[in-house]
Amino acid sequence: MDRRDMYSGVAMMNSTQQKIRKDRKLSIVLRQAECDTKHCSGVESVLLVPGYKILFTASRDSTIKRWNVAGPQPWWEASFDGHTDWVNDIVLYNDILMSCSNDKTVKIWRGTSQGNVLSTLTHHTDYVTSLASTTNSNLVASAGLGGELFLFDIETTSTIKKLYPKDCTTVIPTRKGGGYNQQRSPGGMDIQEGMDEDGSGRGSGTHSVGLSMGSTRISRGELKKSSIFSLAMSASGNVLAAGGADHIVRLWDPRSGDKVGKLRGHTDTVRALALNENGTRALTGGSDGTVKLWDVGLMRCVQTYSIHTESVWSLLPTEGFSSVYSGGRDGAVYCTNLSTRSADLVALERRPVLGMVLDGGDGSLWVCTEGSSVSKWPAAGSRAQARESSRHTPDLDRAVAASPGVNLARMSPGLRMRQHSMEVRRQSTPVAKPLMSIPGVPAITSFKVLNDRRHILSKDSEGNVELWDVLSGGVVQSYGKVVLEEKEKELFEPRSVPSWFTLDARLGQISIWLEPPSCFLSEEYALDLGYPDAPEDQKINMGRLVLEGILAKWKYHLILEDVQRTGVQQVSNQELPSSSSANSNTPAQQGKDMCTSVVQPPFTYSEPWPKYWEQTAGFRVPPAVVCSYASGAPWRLLAPSFTGKELDPDVLPSWVVEAVIRGTNVIPKESKLAFILVPEEGSDMPTLMQSKLNAPRILQVHKVASYCLTKLQELNIHLDLKPQYLKRTAYATPLPPEALSSPPAATSDSIAMKTANSVGGNGQSNTTAGGSVISLTKGHVLELLCNGMAVPYEMSLASVKKYIWRKSDDLVFTFRVQDPHAPMPLPVLSGP
């Protein structure tokens, strides 16, 4: 069976699923240079393998990286690329690495591999913010903004138990490496509106808590109130704690799933949690700027430490629970002795602190922040200091035992704060410089899409501005530290191009989102896109060009498999004009030769321009493709990683396959523009036979002038053409050769005439509109005007209508013989 028929047969099995597939968006992440071996956005979590000097870092750029930190300088070992959004937390169980992300998934990896995903869990309905595990138990907990808390066995992942909210739901994974089918247990129940975590309902209506990917059936207000931001599990595996936006810390016994109790005392979101080995004490940090020490058995706060000036986002207790490192939004890292209430300033970062991990081998502290770099600082809790601090543990025990036996749960937050909050004695010791750092690539923080809808200006966290080309997938020029808005004005060109993609930079990289039918709205002439051998009137769809480039290797494997299996090429391969025929030694031409030499004719490989998956002399890293399965579970692949097996409609959306394989659904609905071409009033020029015309919106003015010149020659009026151009920007596409001299006659495909409602048209070949006979010889220059201004010849019809005509009715061009002493000036068109 033809693979196209196979695809069509599967795609038509279920019309509802087909509609879902067609609506799926596809994103192309334009990755920055060195992003393979460096992070390019904030690092959310760090994890050190004890005794092996192996460091894992999880970043907002959607990747996890493994580093060897045994030597004087850390070096990159591997990247774990599979999440499609921020990676918020990572934990390790033996050699199994687990990660959670804003893409609503938990991924399980082989930590010693080069980034191989073992399985993906899709049981959450919102961002997954936290993970918790222990080396003494194979249980792992995950929680997120949906307010859901799940518990699963890392060795089997066969059953996922939902601890909170309590609805007796289990999830049974059925597929590795992607999403899982999800099934409610026979005893499953719906959560009642107003129901608390015990299942006791106080409301009347019902809200079903569905586990299908992307379906959240609880109101956003309820989710915000119950969102979980922090998790911790005791080393013995007997206590699990979860802190949330409702200012409460909830406790469970993970072995039985029973709720143990609640800790109340914070006045804002609980952002950080830590438990001692046997789960008898807890440390919490909150957005209220405090760190609290709790007696878990008594369910009460015994000490409050006011150290930071802003939110506390990370806590790291030392061995023995005698001291705690805390970091937060103020960028400061303190080491606080819990018994003496003294705090040492250990580090001062430029950005908010997100995570920390101690290296007990050399007494140092790895700190990650909202920046893309990770720093190693000398820790206050070195071995000697830790021994000194441990002497105060009895004093801490006495402080806990001597604390008043007051039921803090019944006290107001203000009274609880006054009862236990005493200012910590902070020592303003000079902060040493980091011992070493793992540098990152500055994250892109803002961008501007230029008028040609092809080039993008980006600005990173260090203030550097760069120019990106969407079609080539990389940076074409760097400007250094300049003002983004001023550079946008400098590069302004009066272009009117339909918006065919959307952008975001939440990963610290530019992500281009394509969605039908808008992604197929923009066309350009092949000559303008760098195809010197293309016919003059051949147009190329920008959206299809990008899809052809990013999926070039995927399509190549499809063709190769068909040829090897049947000896006949079955996948259609519509040729695009070659852009490399002028230089057969270019990397692109060498890549084409390599592809065509693999199989015998009739195989021909279409070389789109440019080829995303082919790295050009190491200048550009391949982009990543982000999409979702038909079930809604997200997936991400680097462009060179496609194998051709992704033809299944469950993987690639049908509209993408149709566009790349068949070239369908790529014709813009409104690609024509009507305009009128008449002589300038008082110019004594004749009226053309047909004056109301239709042409592609992208048709350039020099072709209109060429058409006018040809029609005047038919009336025995011979004029010269002297093109006028606006100042070209550095990135602008070079003008075609015919635009630099008197162009030849326009082809029939360029401008279509309408005889109906023609303006003028008296049938006399050399008679003016006023009836007089004129005689012009070669040497006079034709001047084309619009709205009383000379028209730049590189502008398109759509651009002239938007920036010069500025009216909703049909565009009007007038022509006359140019006065050599007073030529009409070009318009002054300002930028944004």
Which descriptors would you attach to this protein?
single chain; 832 residues; alpha+beta; Ubiquitin-like (UB roll); five-stranded antiparallel beta sheet; 13 helices; 51 strands; WDR48/Bun107; WDR48; repeat; ubiquitin binding
Explained architecture:
The protein is 15% helix and 32% strand. The longest helix has 15 residues, at 552-566. Residues 1-22, 168-223, 382-422, 574-610, 612-619, 739-748 and 753-775 have low confidence and may be disordered. The strands form twelve sheets. Strands 45, 46, 47, 48, 49, 50 and 51 form a seven-stranded mixed β-sheet that branches. It has a five-stranded antiparallel β-sheet with strand order 39-40-1-43-44, with no helix packed on it. It has a five-stranded antiparallel β-sheet with strand order 10-11-12-13-14, with no helix packed on it. It contains 13 helices and 51 strands. Strand 27 and strand 28 (342-348) form a beta hairpin. The protein is an alpha+beta fold. Among the domains are: 22-38 and 442-563 and 620-669, no CATH class; 333-389 and 427-440, no CATH class; 672-724 and 775-831, Ubiquitin-like (UB roll) (Roll). WD repeats lie at residues 36-69, 80-109, 121-162, 226-262, 263-304. Belongs to the WD repeat WDR48 family. Residues 175-216, 571-593 are annotated as: Disordered.
Write the layout of secondary structure elements.
Layout: H1 3-11, H2 15-23, E1 26-30, E2 43-49, E3 54-59, E4 63-68, E5 75-81, E6 87-93, E7 96-101, E8 106-110, E9 117-121, E10 128-134, E11 137-144, E12 149-153, E13 160-164, E14 170-171, E15 191-192, E16 206-207, H3 220-226, E17 228-233, E18 240-244, E19 248-253, E20 258-264, E21 270-275, E22 281-286, E23 291-295, E24 300-306, E25 312-317, E26 323-328, E27 332-337, E28 342-348, E29 353-359, E30 364-369, E31 374-378, H4 383-390, H5 393-402, H6 413-420, E32 421-423, E33 425-427, E34 436-438, E35 444-449, E36 455-460, E37 464-469, E38 474-481, H7 484-490, E39 502-504, E40 510-514, E41 523-525, E42 539-541, H8 542-550, H9 552-566, H10 587-596, E43 624-628, E44 634-638, H11 654-662, E45 672-679, E46 692-696, H12 701-714, E47 720-721, E48 752-754, E49 781-786, E50 789-790, H13 797-805, E51 811-817
Parallel strand pairs: 24-32, 28-33, 45-51, 47-49
Antiparallel strand pairs: 1-40, 1-43, 2-3, 3-4, 4-5, 6-7, 7-8, 8-9, 10-11, 11-12, 12-13, 13-14, 15-16, 17-18, 18-19, 19-20, 21-22, 22-23, 23-24, 25-26, 26-27, 27-28, 29-30, 30-31, 31-34, 35-36, 36-37, 37-38, 39-40, 41-42, 43-44, 45-46, 46-48, 49-50, 49-51
InterPro entries: WD40/YVTN_repeat-like_dom_sf, WD40_PAC1, WD40_repeat_CS, WD40_repeat_dom_sf, WD40_rpt, WDR48, WDR48/Bun107
WD repeats: 36-69, 80-109, 121-162, 226-262, 263-304
Biased composition (Polar residues): 205-216
